[in-house]
Write a structure and sequence with these properties.
Number of helices: 15
Radius of gyration: 35 Å
Protein name: HlyC/CorC family transporter
Subcellular location: Cell membrane
Membrane topology: Multi-pass membrane protein
Distance between the termini: 84 Å
Largest sheet: 5 strands, antiparallel
Organism: Sneathiella sedimenti
Pfam families: CBS (PF00571), CNNM (PF01595), CorC_HlyC (PF03471)
Strand content: 5-15%
Oligomer: single chain
């Protein structure tokens, strides 16, 4: 009778071990698939109506419970399979069977319950995640009481060693998410051959909370403005002859901006006058100026433009002094690059020379230069190339002076008063 029972054990125990190894493979593959699946792709699949993708997302939202349940199930089946194997080998070989069972189960678990399923899950992450989610959902629910107890023990242990709670700082979460996006952009730009222009577009969108208006605004010395005290005929000629549709209107002092003249508003006001332009009151058609601080971020200003349905703002410093102006087009150009139309002046601010160097105007922004040439000049301390040279040199350079920093050589070519107007920049990196 005992012999018959022994034969039954030798039949059913290996079958049980085989089933336990299948469960172990299931748990191992599930862990890899559910943690490695693309959250963005699953989100898009859920939005398209894929029920299983939504199930995967909900499981991942309960990350701690999910991992704890998977690890609990995996360890239970592995330990049980090892115990059964030990029983079989001891009955066959005596005490030495413990060593045989250890060797055999280590190989079986490692190959068929760990490496193999995880390799499959890595190669078919989304399909595997969609397959295991419906099975894991009830498993997580059934194991939840034990998981809660385990998590409680873990939390108590962590609190004893000084690790308490979760880092729920919104800024930290946002920074981590942005770093993850930057890494993904960097990775896929290499793997998928994304062109550099598209990569900079994506990077700029992520940087919009870090870039202030002072870095992209048109400086006041380059702003075309209208003197309200000029003869009306001169004002009309200036506005209609300008490449810009909106011009700041000042009176008594260029710092005293009293309005914004729009070319379309000017034309509408001229039509009823039948050529008697002297009757035109330029101040009456001017729009109210909108002043914004220079420390406003690009994202905040873009949002403000959309809310106000306005495309034009004057930038002031902390004392209220005029620093320059910014338009909706300036912000869009920061993202997509230069936007030229038939009225823009065709002027090349950066010229590539045969020896590999470039000739650039001093007021070209570092961000534009990095974007155009795929350089990595720092833009934390200065917005323009000329500003970077002055910051690093700590002096106002003279013509023909040259400086080397950050792996680039900067040679001063032209200068007006204390302003560097043209430089030659050479990359020293091979």
């Amino acid at each position: 009778m005992e012999t018959g029972e022994s034969h039954l054990e030798l039949i059913f125990l290996p079958l049980a071990i085989f089933l336990l190894l299948l469960l172990s493979a299931f748990f191992s593959g599930s862990e890899t698939a559910l943690t490695g699946a693309s959250r963005a792709r699953l989100h898009q699949m859920e939005q398209s109506g894929n029920h299983r993708a939504g199930l995967v997302n909900r499981l991942r939202d309960k990350h701690t419970k999910l991992i704890s349940a998977i690890l609990l199930g995996n360890n239970l089946v592995n330990i049980l399979a090892s115990a059964l194997a030990t029983s079989i080998f001891i009955s066959l070989f005596g005490d030495i069977g413990v060593a045989y069972a250890t060797i055999v189960m280590t190989i079986l678990v490692l190959v068929f319950a760990e490496v193999l399923p995880k390799t499959v899950a890595l190669r078919r992450t989304i399909p595997v995640a969609l397959f295991v989610a419906p099975v894991l959902r009830p498993a997580v629910f059934l194991l939840s009481p034990v998981v809660l107890g385990i998590n409680y023990i873990v939390d108590v242990t962590l609190s004893i060693i000084g690790i308490k709670g979760y880092d729920n700082d919104g800024d930290t979460v946002t920074d981590a998410a942005q770093d993850e996006l930057r890494g993904a952009i960097e990775l896929h730009s290499e793997d998928a051959g994304i062109i550099m222009h598209e990569r900079y577009m994506l990077d700029t969108i992520l940087d919009m909370d870090e870039v202030d208006l002072e870095e992209i605004m048109v400086h006041r010395k380059n702003v075309e403005m209208v003197d309200a005290e000029k003869p009306v005929r001169e004002i009309i000629d200036q506005v209609l002859g300008s490449p810009y549709t909106r011009l700041p209107l000042w009176k008594s002092n260029p710092e005293n901006i009293i309005g914004i003249v729009h070319a379309k508003d000017l034309l509408r006001a001229l039509i009823p006058l039948d050529g008697d332009y002297e009757k035109l009151e330029i101040e009456s058609i001017a729009l109210e100026p909108w002043f914004v601080p220079e420390t406003t971020t690009l994202r905040s200003q873009l949002t403000a433009f959309l809310e106000r349905k306005s495309h034009f703002a004057l930038v002031v410093d902390e004392y209220g002094a005029l620093m320059g102006l910014v338009t909706l087009e300036d912000i869009l150009e920061e993202i997509v690059g230069d936007i030229a139309d038939e009225h823009d002046l065709a002027v090349s601010d950066v010229r590539l020379m045969k020896d590999g160097s470039i000739i650039t105007k001093g007021d070209v922004t570092i961000r534009d230069l990095n974007r155009q040439l795929n350089w990595a000049l720092p833009d934390e301390e200065a917005a323009t190339v000329a500003g970077l040279v002055i910051h690093e040199a700590q002096i106002i350079p003279e013509i023909s002076q040259a400086f080397i920093f950050h792996g680039y050589k900067f040679e001063i070519l032209k200068k007006e008063h204390n302003q560097i107007t043209e430089l030659r920049v050479t990359s020293l990196e091979l």
